[in-house]
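Write out this protein's structure.
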Amino acid sequence: MPTMHENITLVALVSLALLFGCAGNGVAQEKYDALSASCSKERNGSAALLSDEMAKTASANARASSCAGERQSLEALLSVRDSENAALKVKAAVLDAAREKTGRIAQYGLALQYYQDAFGPGKVPNTARLKKIDAQLAVVNDAALTGLVSGVRNCQGITDCEHAKAMVQPYVEKQQQRLALEASAIVGAGQ
């Protein structure tokens, strides 16, 4: 068994051999300095590229944030426009209903005009005038008015005919007034 002194000597010899062996295989200082300078240069270049990319990312994020804000503004504006359009559609429906009533007033007026052209004072009904009345009565589609005009056509005697003729114009005017009130009520309710 080796003694302690021999062990220490052996460790010292092995250490020297390793030290001299590593020193002989080591990198020269110039190569190390060149490699270190190259690494520093690449590190600085990478840092500059990273800084540029971070600036581009920050700029893109700012644009994205701006776009998001603009989108929210446009969505809010679109919501307001949708509400306005809905209100306009309601008003348009009201006006359409009122227009339908006023259109019927005009149709009654035309029926009365055709009636007076055929049966008014000093007028003689002929086939063309009677056909115009019939066509307009079909448009008006009022059974009571059709009955009144039929009563005038089929009346017997002067008194009966005068009575039948006297009922048509007041009936038409009453219907026109009723429709005018309904149209006014529709417009008033829609506001």
